[in-house]
């Protein structure tokens, strides 16, 4: 593999990740990828411009990102004009541009244009060509992000079938497609089926990749989550206890995935064992998240919210109100006053303010 091919492969892998919860990591990665793309592909290559665009979006510099996106659009049009609109490189460039449109926040436009691109790829390359399947995958992802879980479920079901037909049932990409299909089923509200699908995906990932593979642990975590969403919290509590312990053993206690499973384990503990157990699990977790992720990370803010609510439920509404006041102030600063998390935390603060007054 040449340096240029390796750079493009790294860029494709980075595109496939959701940077919503880890924007700082994304900023660093796409800054590095931008420099690599400049060195190996050139400044005006679509991948270079797209890496630069994503770096700017994750930094919050949307004004400059829009300028780069316009340059990318011009580069895409130029490729289509020089190579022909149906040339594979022209189609890949169009896919890259639409990814940037979606990541900049215009999901509706991206979904509509991705649907057209999928139609063209099916006509030119066929429905099961790897490039077609990859674009269909992005289309399904943004359909789900746009809120149409029912349509995303259908798209993901077809993708899982086609990946299995092309690569085989045990190929990692097929297993990934099944995991994403289960995710869309849960998002569509079918929690019981989602839990069963994740259990099956976890089993097959364990068989193919190994029981300690991070992707196996990922499917196990989601199995536990959707089991809880299916109102089987006692079962989910046991599942989260196992996956939290295994993630801590395999990835390290301070890995974000380990802390995520520990957080869910603590939540389930409140319903199954009691609030004191949740508090006992959350207190060291919150200290770790504050130290490792930082006080402003969304995971830390989320844990602070539950910690504050537990404080109130354990008989200290005054301290609960104080903790939530500080949390709301920090969330407004980090996420903005209209963010759904901010609004939810503000409601919690109002509740414990009233509870404190009644407690006097």
Briefly summarize what is shown.
It comes from Yinghuangia soli. It contains 17 helices and no strands. The chain is mainly alpha-helical.
| Shape call | globular
The CA-CA distance between the termini, in Å, is 71 Å
Individual helix count: 17
Report the major sheet: none
How much helix is in the residues?
Answer: over 70%
Number of strands: 0
- Work out the radius of gyration: 22 Å
Structural class: mainly alpha
> How much of the polypeptide forms β-strand, as a percent range?
under 5%
Question: What string, H for helix and E for strand, traces the elements in order?
Answer: HHHHHHHHHHHHHHHHH
User: Unreliable runs, pLDDT <50, ≥5 residues?
Assistant: none
Quaternary structure annotation: single chain
- On the 0-100 scale, what is the average pLDDT? 93
InterPro entries: NLR-like, TPR-like_helical_dom_sf
Biased composition (Basic and acidic residues): 335-351
Pfam families: TPR_10
Organism: Yinghuangia soli
Structure description:
The protein has 360 residues and is an all-alpha fold. Among the domains are: 1-105; 107-189, Serine Threonine Protein Phosphatase 5, Tetratricopeptide repeat. Helix content is 82%, strand content 0%. The protein has 17 helices and no strands. It has helices at residues 3-15, 23-40, 46-59, 62-83, 88-103, 107-124, 130-145, 149-167, 172-187, 191-209, 214-229, 233-251, 256-272, 275-292, 298-313, 317-335, 340-359. The mean pLDDT is 93.
């Amino acid at each position: 593999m040449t340096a240029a091919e390796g750079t493009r492969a790294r860029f494709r892998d980075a595109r496939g990740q959701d940077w919503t919860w880890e924007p700082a990591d994304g900023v660093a990665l796409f800054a590095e990828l931008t420099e690599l793309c400049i060195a190996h592909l050139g400044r005006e290559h679509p991948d270079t411009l797209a890496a630069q665009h994503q770096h700017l979006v994750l930094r919050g510099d949307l004004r400059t990102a829009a300028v780069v996106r316009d340059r990318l659009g011009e580069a895409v049009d130029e490729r289509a004009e020089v190579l022909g609109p149906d040339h594979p490189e022209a189609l890949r460039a169009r896919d890259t541009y639409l990814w940037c449109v979606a990541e900049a926040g215009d999901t509706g436009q991206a979904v509509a244009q991705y649907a057209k691109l999928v139609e063209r790829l099916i006509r030119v390359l066929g429905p099961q060509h790897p490039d077609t399947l990859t674009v269909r995958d992005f289309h399904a992802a943004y359909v789900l992000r746009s809120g149409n879980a029912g349509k995303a479920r259908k798209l993901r079901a077809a993708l899982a079938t086609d990946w299995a037909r092309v690569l085989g049932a045990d190929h990692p990409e097929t297993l990934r497609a099944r995991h994403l299909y289960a995710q869309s089923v849960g998002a569509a509200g079918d929690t019981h089926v989602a839990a069963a699908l994740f259990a099956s995906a976890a089993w097959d990932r364990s068989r193919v990749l190994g029981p300690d593979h991070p992707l196996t642990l990922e499917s196990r975590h989601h199995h536990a989550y959707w089991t809880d969403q299916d109102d089987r919290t006692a079962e989910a509590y046991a599942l989260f206890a196992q996956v939290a312990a295994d993630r801590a053993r395999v990835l390290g206690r301070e890995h974000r995935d380990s802390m995520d499973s520990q957080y869910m384990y603590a939540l389930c503990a409140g319903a199954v064992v009691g609030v004191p157990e949740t508090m006992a699990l959350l207190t060291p977790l919150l200290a770790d998240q504050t130290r490792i992720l930082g006080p402003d990370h969304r995971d830390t803010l989320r844990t602070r919210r539950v910690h504050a609510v537990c404080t109130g439920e354990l008989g200290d509404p005054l301290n609960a109100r104080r903790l939530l006041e500080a949390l709301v102030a920090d969330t407004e600063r980090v996420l903005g006053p209209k963010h759904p998390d901010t609004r939810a935390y503000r409601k919690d603060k109002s509740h414990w303010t009233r509870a404190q007054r009644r407690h006097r």
